[in-house]
Write a structure and sequence with these properties.
Blueprint lengths: L12 H5 L4 E3 L9 E5 L1 H6 L4 H5 L18 E3 L3 E3 L2 E3 L7 E8 L5 E7 L16 H16 L6 E13 L3 E11 L5 H9 L3 H15 L9 H23 L1 E2 L21 E2 L23 H20 L3 H12 L1 H17 L8 H17 L4 H12 L4 H4 L5 H12 L5 H5 L9 H12 L4 H11 L29
Antiparallel strand pairs: 1-3, 2-8, 4-5, 6-7, 7-9, 8-9, 10-11
Helix pairs in contact: 4-16, 4-17, 5-8, 7-8, 7-9, 7-10, 8-9, 11-14, 16-17
The chain binds adenosine monophosphate and magnesium ion.
The site of adenosine monophosphate has 18 residues, from loops.
Length: 485
């Protein structure tokens, strides 16, 4: 086995500070590793040489190369899945390789998904298929380029090992980078041990890594909770602005950092409709587009429950402060959502808030009634602000309604350039993602690379990429996503 450069240091801070949540483990061997996608700018940010990662260092991306001093671990966590509590989930097909300090001094987790069975695997095989790992690569990079906080994908490496799903598929490992992998479910797991010292260490670890200002607050653990509430309110508002449907907002898939995590059956909404659901298993629509803010609040209530022993000595007092802090979520979310909508409409700062709010509400009713394509519509408003409303108008049946709304909006003096910096031309549309993943699974990476090129610079309209800006053809039909386990 080749060794890692001596300069590559993978710390084991999580494992050292929280050994009860970290099971030392090693990745499965990979018969024939081959890089399918490598995020070179991210590699550079992490101080990793892309040439080395493609060659001798490929094992760092699959877990078969463990730098000296590193201790890969499977992380323990619990979680509410579709509302039902599972006391022991954990990394069933993932490993935390360790933490790296990046070029700007930030601590980043290097984590693998699809790296083989662990003590948390239950009935699963610990593996992942090429398609779902490339989906996470594309969608998380698109989210990053859209300015939405997210885990990042460093690479996807085909393992050469087949994976049995409904059919036999080629296997892959995703190398993921995150500011940490602490989840609401991590706190639920620690709470369930009844070890208050562990819970306190976990909270202190989270404060140090993500919300350091909380350390100076009169009540640091309450301040941590409030910081997570604020981060999630801002995050989910951003999802709504870009039309992102996470698809599986279980408490184990919600981070403490406020980064989007665990891209499974996620998708970007085409026609605007709050009831939009893509996931095959979300039959009740629990994680529908329009439900995401309410679900985030529900998940944060579960975090509050887990934190109760740290919030006050008496349970009643702890519940009272938790309820009060959780009560800030709705206002924070509304303020973030409204501010983002004003930006999407290019409204200048001085515009009356109440007038802007009515304008937004009326627009939402119009686009919903006419099933207007979310991404194309907002992008086309840039041209409308410049005096050419034809493209936007062409998306409506209710032309009188659109014209009346547009006249009101134009009187407020929208800033077209600002709109073009916030309303993307390109998002990873479902039909394009499917096309790219199908081709990649069959061995052709060209459509994937082209899609990545489009969504990595989503605001920058380029000749030759027209089809990446268009809604799915009718022949694509309705779309269903699968969990990819
Ligand atoms: P996810 O749906 O990816 O958020 O995963 C939910 C839980 O199922 C986590 O505990 C995963 O580690 C576990 N899991 C998902 N897929 C597999 C698999 N193929 N093998 C073992 N565990 C898995
Ligand atoms: Mg998960």
């Amino acid at each position: 086995m080749t060794s890692a450069p001596a300069t590559l240091v993978l710390d084991g801070r999580f494992a050292r500070e929280l050994p009860e949540l970290a099971l030392p483990w090693q990745a499965a061997d990979t018969p024939d590793p081959r890089v399918l996608a490598l995020n070179e700018p991210l590699a550079a940010e992490l101080g990793l040489d892309p040439g080395w990662l493609r060659g001798d260092g490929i094992g760092l991306l699959t877990g078969t190369l463990v730098p000296d001093g590193a201790t890969p671990v499977a992380q323990a966590y619990a979680g509410h899945q579709f509302g039902g509590y599972s006391p022991r989930l954990g990394d069933g097909r993932a490993l935390l390789m360790g933490e790296l300090v990046d070029a700007s001094g930030r601590l980043r987790d290097l984590h693998l998904k699809g790296s083989g069975r662990t003590p948390f695997s239950r009935g699963g095989d610990g593996l992942a298929a090429v398609g779902p790992m490339l989906r996470e690569h594309v969608v998380s990079e698109a989210m990053h380029a859209l300015g939405v906080p997210t885990t990042r994908s460093l690479a996807v490496v085909a393992t050469g090992r087949p994976v049995q799903r409904e059919t036999v598929l080629p296997g892959a490992v995703l190398a993921r980078v995150a500011s940490s992998h602490l989840r609401v479910g991590t706190f639920q797991y620690a709470r369930a041990t009844d070890d208050v010292d562990l819970l306190r260490r976990l909270a202190d670890h989270a404060i140090a890594r993500h919300h350091p200002a909380a350390a100076d607050a009169p009540h640091p653990h309450l301040a941590l909770f409030e910081a997570v509430v604020a981060a999630q309110a801002a995050l989910v508002a951003q999802w709504m602005h870009v039309g992102f449907v996470h698809g599986v907002m279980n408490t184990d898939n919600m981070t403490i950092s406020g980064e989007t995590i665990d891209y499974g059956p996620c998708a970007f909404m085409d026609a605007f409709d709050p009831t939009t659901v893509y996931s095959s298993i979300d039959t009740g629509g629990r994680y529908a587009y329009g439900n995401q803010p309410v679900v985030a609040e529900w998940n944060l209530a579960r975090l509050a429950e887990a934190l109760l022993p740290l919030l006050a000595d008496e349970q009643d007092a702890a519940v009272a402060v938790a309820v009060e802090s959780l009560g800030t979520f709705r206002d924070l979310y509304s303020a973030a959502w409204s501010a983002g909508m004003r930006t999407k409409l290019g409204l200048p700062d001085g515009v009356d808030r109440a007038e802007a709010s009515t304008l937004v509400t009326d627009l939402v009713a119009l686009v919903q009634a006419d099933h207007v394509d979310h991404t194309s519509f907002f992008r086309s408003l840039g041209a409308a602000a410049r005096g050419d409303a034809e493209a936007a108008r062409g998306m409506f049946l209710d032309l009188a309604g659109f014209d009346a709304w547009t006249a009101r909006w134009l009187r407020l003096g929208p800033d077209a350039d600002a709109m073009d910096r916030t309303n993307p031309v390109y998002v990873p549309r479902n039909h394009l993602v499917e096309e790219a993943l199908d081709a990649a699974t069959a061995g052709d990476l060209a459509p994937l690379d082209r899609l990545l090129e489009a969504v990595s610079a989503p605001f920058d309209e380029r000749a030759g990429l027209e089809r990446y800006a268009e809604p799915a053809p009718d022949s694509f039909g309705s779309y269903t996503t699968f969990c990819g386990t």
